[in-house]
Design brief:
The chain is of the alpha/beta class and about 425 residues long. The protein folds into two domains: about 240 residues, TIM Barrel, CATH 3.20.20.10; about 120 residues, Lyase, Ornithine Decarboxylase, Chain A, domain 1. It has eleven helices and 17 strands. The strands form two sheets. Strands 1, 10, 11, 12, 13, 14, 15, 16 and 17 form a nine-stranded mixed sheet that branches. An eight-stranded parallel barrel has the order 2-3-4-5-6-7-8-9, surrounded by five helices. Bound molecules: pyridoxal-5'-phosphate.
């Protein structure tokens, strides 16, 4: 895959914007299916578990469910989205670093199949919830036991001290503690980092995760009925970056699995690949309409109706996504900042990006917006309408989230007396 905008041609993007208004998120179902198939080819016999945090729209997630994926929810809200997408409760895992007692009880009552536990205290709270509700829970222990080489990545969960999972001391303390009667420890979960482009590093991570899983299972005196590995596969956002080399990844993963799956510890274990970004990022485009083009002290500003309230990620992560003027590929390029409608200079969705001539009424498309897009916006800041989301599948297209109206943000605000 290249960094280019998704396969939807300019005429289709224009028609979508005209029909559904801007700003707008559009997703290409075929691209999601392709990404899922490509990942499974690299990681066979793993099953993908789709991380709703990347994009919680149930219709998009249902594309993956139909391809055989399971679901990874990190809150009761994401659990509701997974149920709405049609995932069987047994195929849903509840993870996340801070689960409330209400969320644990809700998940148990919903029949969630598996829990990832992040600390002994959380395990005890889950145990108490099980006792209260007369339920049992299958649990994986999340490991934070080694420092992999994720040096340059911003989205690191292990390596430096973090709030995630069990480090070696916490694991040893868990092993020494009394067993819980309602929570069965039967799995190991490793998620190190997000946005990894280096295929060799992902394979090294897998090898380390499997070795650590064997060690942890030995220490805890448990069999591994499930191993969950989060590969953190990234996608290229910037010029000069490349998507992970999947051919290399497949070769390296095979070498690791040929060796690791010989171990008795993994006999009969269910293997899950927990990921979001790679499955949906490239399938999504964020479309905004240009309202004004201005020059201020020699610098060009393209002012659009889409801002960081709708699409925060570039400002939050400090880098652009691929950005283009729809239907205008050629011509002389010059730098511009693409800005939104908010009353703050941080409302910039692409900074110093090279764009051709652009005028009011044009559409600007921001690519690779399918993951951590809509879901990461500053939705209520300055009370603009929230965009619709549209799922395109070949010739079909479906609104999978309606655009909000002007006053919809007041829905949960009681009347002023
Ligand atoms: C525990 C866990 N699982 C899965 C994911 C999804 O990662 P990605 O979207 O990079 O595949 C994340 C992302 O932060 C995570 O923290």
């Amino acid at each position: 895959m290249s960094r280019d905008l998704p396969a939807l041609p300019p005429a289709r993007l224009r028609a979508l914007a005209a029909r559904h208004g801007t700003p707008l998120y559009a997703y290409d179902a075929a691209a999601v299916r392709r990404a899922h198939a490509a990942v499974l080819r690299c990681f066979a016999p793993f099953r993908a578990s789709y991380s709703f945090k990347a994009n919680p729209n149930p219709h998009l997630a249902a594309v993956l469910r139909r391809q055989g994926a399971a679901a990874d929810a990190a809150s009761a809200g994401e659990l509701c989205a997974a149920l709405a997408a049609g995932f069987a409760p047994a195929d849903i895992t509840l993870g996340g670093p801070a689960k409330g007692d209400d969320e644990l009880a809700f998940a148990l009552a919903a029949g969630v199949g598996h829990f990832v536990v992040e600390s002994a205290a959380e395990l005890d709270r889950l145990e108490r919830a099980c006792r209260r509700l007369g339920r049992r829970a299958a649990c994986s222990v999340r490991l934070n036991t080694y420092a992999a080489g994720h040096g340059g990545l911003r989205e690191r969960m292990t390596g430096p001290p973090t709030k995630f999972g069990f480090d070696r001391a916490a694991l040893a303390a868990l092993a020494a503690s009394r067993p819980r009667r309602h929570c069965r420890l039967c799995g190991v979960h490793v998620y190190n980092a997000s946005g990894i482009l280096d295929a060799a590093l992902v394979a090294r991570d897998l090898a380390a995760a499997m070795a650590e899983a064997r060690r942890a299972a030995g220490l805890l005196g448990m069999g591994i009925s499930r191993l969950t590995f989060g590969p953190g596969l990234g996608v290229a956002y910037l010029p000069g970056q490349r998507d992970p080399d999947l051919a290399l990844l497949a070769r390296r993963v095979k070498t690791v699995l040929d060796r690791e799956l010989q171990h008795e510890a993994f006999r009969g274990a269910e293997l899950q690949l927990e990921l979001g970004r790679y499955l949906v990022a490239a399938a999504g485009v964020f479309l905004t309409r240009v309202l004004d083009v201005k020059t201020c002290r020699g610098k060009r500003f393209v002012v659009t109706d889409g801002g960081i309230n709708h699409f925060l990620r570039p400002a939050l992560m400090g880098h652009n996504h691929p950005t283009a003027v729809v239907g205008r590929a050629g011509g002389r390029l010059a730098a511009a900042d693409v800005c939104g409608p908010l009353c703050t200079p941080i409302d910039t969705i692409a900074r110093n990006v090279m764009l051709p001539r652009v005028t009011a009424g044009d559409l600007v498309a921001v690519g690779r917006a399918g993951a951590y897009g809509f879901t990461m916006g500053l939705q209520s800041f300055i009370s603009h309408r929230m965009p619709a989301e549209v799922l395109v599948d070949g010739r079909e297209e479906r609104v999978i989230r309606r655009r909000t109206g002007f006053g919809d943000g007041l829905a949960n605000v009681p009347p002023v007396r």
